[in-house]
Design a protein that fits this description.
alpha+beta; two-stranded antiparallel sheet; 9 strands
Length: 171
């Protein structure tokens, strides 16, 4: 898959995440260096939102906008922002847990790793919603890394993820 940044075409790793399939458990690190596993089925049966961003200009502003949006969500949701490398920032988040892909598991397993160009080894801008059953409920990879995240669409998809799963299987 290809995405764009400014006038440059960027290749992504050849891995595809499909809606409805089980999400992968991957190890990531907090900015403090603590290893955490995200994705996969969690016993808490909480909806999980994972957003990946490249470290490009205005990353701090994008993080703040996303965190402000998520801070208005009143239901229980685990929110992770995954970057390729540890981010030195003064941004304080309320809802987002900042993580970095130290082990390169997230970028590889979720298909967000940029494999060519000036942004090689960064992560593309993507959104994943993992339902309460651990399956990928929604996925969006931004075609242009300069585009803003669509919070209206994200709100709709989060609402659908909460209302769809009733914990009783398919019968």
């Amino acid at each position: 898959m290809r995405v764009k940044y400014k006038d440059e075409a960027l290749e992504l790793i050849d891995e595809i995440i499909e809606i409805g399939y089980k999400s992968e458990k991957v190890k990531v690190c907090s900015n403090g260096g603590e290893t955490t596993t995200i994705g996969g089925f969690q016993a808490s049966k909480t909806v999980v939102l994972i957003v990946s961003l490249p470290n490009i200009e205005n990353t701090d502003i994008q993080i703040q906008k996303l965190d402000n949006f998520l801070s208005n969500i009143v239901v229980d949701i685990d929110c992770y922002l995954v970057l390729a490398n540890e981010l030195k920032t003064d941004v304080k988040t309320k809802k987002l847990q900042l993580m970095y892909d130290k082990y390169k598991e997230f970028g590889t397993m979720y298909g967000t790793l940029i494999t060519s160009s000036t942004l090689e080894n960064e992560l593309c801008k993507a959104i994943f919603i993992i339902g309460k059953d651990g399956a990928i409920y929604y996925e969006q990879t931004m075609d242009n890394l300069q585009d803003e995240l669509d919070f209206e669409k994200l709100s709709i998809e989060l609402n659908r993820a909460f209302s769809t799963y009733n914990g009783q299987g398919c019968h």
